[in-house]
Amino acid sequence: MKKPKYHILICSSSRLQGEPKGACKSRGSSDFLPYIEEEIGDRGIEDVLLSNTGCLKLCDEGPAMVIYPQGWWYTGLTEDKIDQILDALEDGDAAADLLA
User: Fold this and answer.
1) Strand order across the beta sheet in which 72-74 lies
2) What residue spans define the domains of the chain?
3) Among 21, 35, 51, 71, whose Cα sits 20 to 30 Å from the Cα of 57?
4) pLDDT tens sequence across 10-30
5) Backbone phi, psi, residue 10, to 5°
């Protein structure tokens, strides 16, 4: 597999030291993974890798997402916000008004 242009990382709230906070997961972050995957396919956005991660340490602002290598951070995710983020990504841009 070649290196993707965009790597979307969604917080799944797990921590290495066993300090489960669960903020992002309890706010539905795991439900966003299949939604985003389907939207990426439906929109035909190429060169995207989608992954869930351990804690991104934005518990008070979660669910959280970061897109690398651009370093675009988003918090307080909802399906509407994800749609705006993916709309911008289709054009190769960040959803500037949603950046954390």
Assistant:
1) 48-53, 6-11, 65-68, 72-74
2) 6-98
3) 35
4) 998 876 666 666 788 888 888
5) -110, 130
Residue type, 85: I
More confident residue, 18 or 3: 3
One-letter identity of residue 97: D
What is the fold of 6-98?
A: Glutaredoxin (3.40.30)
- List the one residue out of 64, 83, 88, 97 whose CA is nearest residue 6: 88
User: How far is residue 7's CA from residue 78's CA, in Å, rounded to a whole number?
Assistant: 19
3-class SS letters over the chain: CCCCCEEEEEECCCCCCCCCCCHHHHCCHHHHHHHHHHHHHHHCCCCEEEEEECCCCCHHHCCCEEEECCCEEECCCCHHHHHHHHHHHHCCCCCHHHEC
